[in-house]
Amino acid sequence: MAARVVLVAGFTHHDVADELWRASPESSLVRHDLSSLAEGVVRRWADGRLTVLELAHGCVSCTLRLDLVPLLEGLDGRVIVQLDPMLEPEAVCFALSGTEVEIEAVVTVVDTATWLDDATGADSLADRGLRAAEGDERMVAQVVVGQAEFADALVLTGPGDPVLTAVLDRLSPGAPRQQLSELDVVSLLAAIPADARRGEIDDGFGSLLYGRPSLEPAHGVSVVHFTDRRPFHPMRLHNCIDVLLDGVVRVRGRVWVASQPDAALWLESAGGGLRVGNLGPWEGDRDQELVVITKSADAAEIAAALRSALVTDEELALVTELDFADPFADWHEEEMEL
């Protein structure tokens, strides 16, 4: 019998994992402390028993591959896994995707006092003394946004203001929410809709409006859903990147640049952190699709900037003959050892 795992993520101290464990007496509780990961040391508690692991390479992927994955493969029944604050649940689910381990739910704790500032700020994990390893250049915003976005359920540390509520409505629209002070973990898990993600990893080619968020603005928060059937001019797209960062909570999408007609590029940002990767060849027709969740930015300005970055009719007619300067040719998400 394979393990049924509930992942508990969050960037703040909480006891939600303990509450889930106490509510399910037959479950196991696993937590990791990665604060000494850069020195190759990981501390793991499994049902209260401490194991100190020494890794030859201090990185998140090594911790998942060499410890967490085999540990969960060896367990059965419900397992509550409290993730270290620097971990994003999507990376954990990706590591488990080739196993028989079932993700029952991903629960993320959102600190209502700090989350919005973290999600739109420019601090790196290194600035906070939380960098997982020497090559870890992630931004705090990338972690907190990723944790909330991938959640099947959210626990709020306190009452959220209308702006935070509007952002979460669009970032994780299907996730039920409870306040920590009134937490009933049984009812929270029961409220997760049948079509929730539950650890499913996107391939980048599906719909980007996961959970059908409202496209209507509220409290200054908007969603820009940009689509088009012609490519971007690579330099003009590069020049409008700043518009996608200032006052924006999240950008996710696949883009087609005229200089790379066969490659589907993936663009993702949170706060001041930007990732550009290559999804591989296009599956079907090439098209642009970007989803931008704003906090204070002008949605119309973002849509206009993206529209102006597309190739013109004249450029499209000569697209095979033009020699485009392409800042995206060598700018891609490297396989970071985290």
Q: Would you give an account of this structure?
A:
By secondary structure, the chain is of the alpha/beta class. 25% of the residues lie in helices and 26% in strands. The protein has ten helices and 13 strands. It has an eight-stranded mixed sheet, with helices on both faces. Strand 3 and strand 4 form a beta hairpin. The two termini are 31 Å apart.
Defining key terms:
338 residues, disordered C terminus, alpha/beta, 13 strands, 25% helix, eight-stranded mixed sheet
- State the share of residues found in helices, binned by percent: 10-25%
Overall radius of gyration: 21 Å
Report the span from N to C terminus.
31 Å
What does the main sheet amount to? Answer: 8 strands, mixed
What is the ordering of alpha helices and beta strands? EHEEEHEHEHHEHEHEHEEEEHH
Shape: globular
- Structural class computed from helices and strand pairing: alpha/beta
The low-confidence parts are 332-338
Give me the side-by-side strand order of the main sheet. 4-3-2-5-1-6-7-8
* Beta-strand residue fraction: 25-35%
Count of DSSP-assigned helices: 10
The beta-strand count equals 13
